[in-house]
Amino acid sequence: MTERIDNPIPLLEVKNLATGYGDIRVVWDVSLSVFTGKLTAVLGRNGAGKTTALRAIAGLNKVGKGSIVYKGSDVSHLPAHRRVGMGMALVQDGKRVFHRLTVQENLLLGGYTLGIGRRKMPEKLTRIYDIFPMLGDRQNVTVGQMSGGQQQMVAIGQALMAEPSLLMLDEPSGGLAPAIVDEVMGILVTLKATGMGVLLVEQQVEAAIDVADQVVVLDIGRVILDSPASELVDLDVLKEAYFGSAKLEGDASSEKHESA
Ligand SMILES: Nc1ncnc2c1ncn2[C@@H]1O[C@H](COP(=O)(O)OP(=O)(O)OP(=O)(O)O)[C@@H](O)[C@H]1O
Ligand SMILES: [Mg+2]
Questions:
Q1: Is 73 a pocket residue for ligand 1 (Cβ < 6 Å)?
Q2: Best probe residue, ligand 1, of 52, 90, 245 (max atoms within 8 Å of C-beta)
């Protein structure tokens, strides 16, 4: 059999992941891949298990079953900081920035948290400001005075201090106006053009598909759709995956919305 040259080894390969909180399992079987310079979007309804799966990939939730292979190494049971050291960075949901500190102070704090030495900081900062000139222009501005979108950029900037090969983000569009969502998605496109692999968890389906190469939909802790983004042009397949799954669960009511 000939080797397929259009099928490179993934940067991240998650196989049959099961995870949860203590004894409570909420993710049963999630497999997905992220390739260098590509973006995989993880979509799904509220409570589908997106955040839980992402936390397990980053090392914040314990892997119950399955494996997480990054750059060819099985990292399934490595502590989170070791994964960060290997180039896996996570931007958690909510804009976890310090409002009373300046942009630069936030980035420095991010750097220290990631274990970057003082001597390397200036070069790391310069790199972030090259990627996000907006942050360079505002390096001495207090983050609390900035817009939600700008704060999200600071949060992403903090993660980039580690110079990750894989950037994972949990709903970076959360609470942002549509125009700003596009701006944040634009940043992700810029980052993947630098060769970074991106794993993006999103609620903003169309915005995510626009920037994604591969789309994975989760429901009740399982993958219910895994498709190249280019094949999801009319979004009908996706709607079917989202709303068809309720029927698969034996619930014939067409649209079941969670009441939080
Ligand atoms: N700390 C926790 N302890 C126990 N169960 C939790 C915890 N956090 C989340 N869960 C449960 O795990 C399930 C999956 O939640 P998760 O946050 O992963 O979903 P999600 O897909 O990220 O949803 P959303 O789109 O609302 O962010 C839900 O049933 C949720 O109630
Ligand atoms: Mg979530």
A1: no
A2: 52
All domains of the chain, ordered by start, with CATH?
A: 12-248 (3.40.50.300)
Cα distances (angstroms) measured from residue 123 to each of 119, 134, 159: 8, 17, 15
Confidence of residue 82 (pLDDT cuts 50, 70, 90): very high
pTM above 0.85, yes or no: yes
Our answer on whether the CB atom of 209 is closer than 6 Å to any ligand 1 atom is no
pLDDT digits (tens, 9 = 90+) for 244-258: 654 434 333 333 343
Q: Is the CB of 36 under 6 A from ligand 1?
A: no
